[in-house]
TrEMBL record:
Residue ranges of the annotated DNA-binding region, renumbered to this chain: 38-57
Lineage: Bacteria, Bacillati, Actinomycetota, Actinomycetes, Micrococcales
Keyword DNA-binding in record: yes
Name by which UniProt lists this protein: HTH tetR-type domain-containing protein
InterPro entries (alphabetical): Homeodomain-like_sf, HTH-type_TetR-like_transc_reg, HTH_TetR, Tet_transcr_reg_TetR-rel_C_sf
Entries under PANTHER family matching the protein: HTH-TYPE TRANSCRIPTIONAL REGULATOR RUTR, TRANSCRIPTIONAL REGULATORY PROTEIN
Organism annotation: Arthrobacter alpinus
Length: 214
């Protein structure tokens, strides 16, 4: 094997380490709870040493925030796809139908909900982690808000509150419904009902806007 081939293979191998560690952490935290998972356990579950962990993450907090960002990217991708559908004329009869479509397109991710709940609880006890967590929450809302506004505007409506408050309310409603729907045979049902209620309660027909699509 030439030196050139050896060099070419190293980045590929390293590029696999970080995702495998994140995947192992997510699985273990779901099974055991965030407080019961150690760096050593994550590294071992991923098939690496403790040193490999620290080559990719400076601390457990950094790993947790990386998990948060990973899930946020997945969420935004799903939301982008579903809101693109809403922008097509004639696809949805009204705003309620569009909201139901968007909510149903979001993954029912029990694993992530448990991790996020644990992360929020830990952040409430750790000022440094709390600051970083709130920054990630704010960044996620900044990405969510324009996509949500596309749905509202597509049906000739406007908000009765500022956009950030609207997004906060909708996320809180969605997460609350998610927390109470693990045992439901149709978990998306309550999420659709609650999110639709928030959207309809915080919007109104725009004073001067195009007619809603038929």
């Amino acid at each position: 094997m030439t030196v050139r081939n050896q060099v070419a293979r190293v980045p590929r191998k390293r590029s696999e380490t970080r995702p495998r560690i994140l995947s192992a952490a997510r699985q273990l935290m779901t099974e055991r709870g965030l407080d019961r998972v150690s760096i050593e356990a994550i590294a071992e579950h991923a098939g690496y040493t403790r040193g490999a962990f620290y080559s990719n993450f400076a601390s457990m907090d950094e790993l947790l925030l990386a998990l948060y960002e990973q899930h946020s990217d997945e969420l935004i991708s799903e939301l982008r796809s579903s809101t693109n559908d809403v922008s097509q004329p004639g696809v949805f009869e009204n705003l309620e139908a569009a909201v139901a479509h968007v909510v149903c397109a979001l993954p029912f991710d029990v694993q992530w909900f448990r991790i996020r709940t644990n992360l929020a609880a830990q952040a409430s006890r750790d000022p440094k982690l709390s600051l970083l967590y709130l920054e990630r929450e704010s960044a996620l809302r900044e990405q969510l808000t324009p996509r949500l506004m596309e749905v509202i505007n597509a049906f000739g409506c406007e908000l009765t509150v500022d956009p950030d408050t609207f997004t906060r309310a909708l996320v809180a409603a969605h997460d609350g419904a998610l927390a109470n729907s693990f045992a439901d045979t149709e978990p998306r049902g309550i999420r659709v009902v609650v999110c639709t209620a928030v959207v309809l309660g915080l919007t109104r027909p725009a004073a001067a806007s195009p007619q809603p699509r038929k």
